[in-house]
Amino acid sequence: xxxxxFGTLLADPSTTDQPFADxxxxxxxxxxxxxxxxxxxxxxxxxxxxxxxxxxAFSLQRPTGGxxxxxxxxxxSAPGFLSAxxxxxxxxxxxMIVVMLLMVPTVIYVHLRMPRFRRAxxxxxxxxxxxxxxxYSVGVLESAPSWLRSSQYLLAIVYVILAMPYxxxxxDSGLGALDLKTLVEASRSLGSGWxxxxxxxxxxxxxxxxxxxSVLTIALVFGEFTIANVDNWTTIPVWIYLAPxxxxxxNTLVAMIALLATxxxxxxIVSLDRSxxxxxxxx
Length: 283
Prior knowledge:
This protein is an all-alpha fold and about 280 residues long. It has a domain at about 80-235: MetI-like fold (Orthogonal Bundle). It is about 75% helix and about 0% strand. The chain has helices spanning about 1-10, 35-60, 70-75, 80-115, 120-130, 135-145, 145-150, 150-175, 180-190, 195-205, 205-225, 225-230, 235-240, 250-280. It is globular and about 75 Å long. About 20% of the residues are buried.
């Protein structure tokens, strides 16, 4: 029967040129426009951009009208600004290094050896947010030795504890996305020690988590006011609040520049991480 049907098709070739009845025209998928998501993004952008623009316009606007960049030149010459900036920079670097050296091995050890202790770690690391900053700073001053009270390193130790909740959650989410046991066992089977495994294997895979933790730590140090003011240290937030300037617009301008610098650093880190991830995928 099959040979007869094939012979019939050869005898009447017009039947082979006819299209199949089941063929359907190819329809292109239309992209759905998510109006709700776009509206939320626009409203959130306006919520941040409009106050920022108003503050910058207030800082750079001349009394006679128009805008001028003269307040920017007055920032460096303002009394105490450079020393406050240097102190905040020192505290940010020290805090970031110390908190990373403490939290990275701790979180890795908890994930590997004590996975049931993760809930207790979440409770412990949330305590610096629950305790009021004033009570926290007074308690640290009363318990710290006398030689440490007059040093800025005491404030760095306090900031390490304050940054612990944000650093822990960033590292915890980063390690949760990895096959940690496989990576560690493979590295250990090749003869690497624990320090080499953490530095050469785990740290490159935790690049995004470490970057986000670093940004959060820097933003915390440059934005904290209460503890620095109680401990009588003039950081950038304290200087903005207490600086005796002839032009009050300079203080507002410094606050906006600090906010803009934090946003720029965060954007650069995110873009750098995306570019490196794309390069790794291509290779």
